[in-house]
Amino acid sequence: MVPRGDFAAMSEALGVNLRDHAATACANLVDGRNFLEQALYVDEISPDSAHLLHQAATRAWRPAFARVMRLAEKRFARDAVKESEARRQARVRFGVYFFVEDSSEEKSE
Prior knowledge:
mainly alpha, 0% strand
């Protein structure tokens, strides 16, 4: 979740998430990598449908986050014991976003 009420923390979260998302897209496009980067897009739906999709996305995210977080914690603990500091240089960001807007604003521009 985005930290609320602390503008500096919110700005930092925005910056690191944007950086890693852009780095993923660039690596896939330029370097021929195959990082996970998927999105669903649908338009011409009602605000009620958008709200239901937001709820569904939130429900889908929770178990995915929990599963990946459990594995991350296990691997972090394992690597702290079994791997040298020199080998523990990789970092991972796993996330999801959901955005809704009135597309009539886009069409009028």
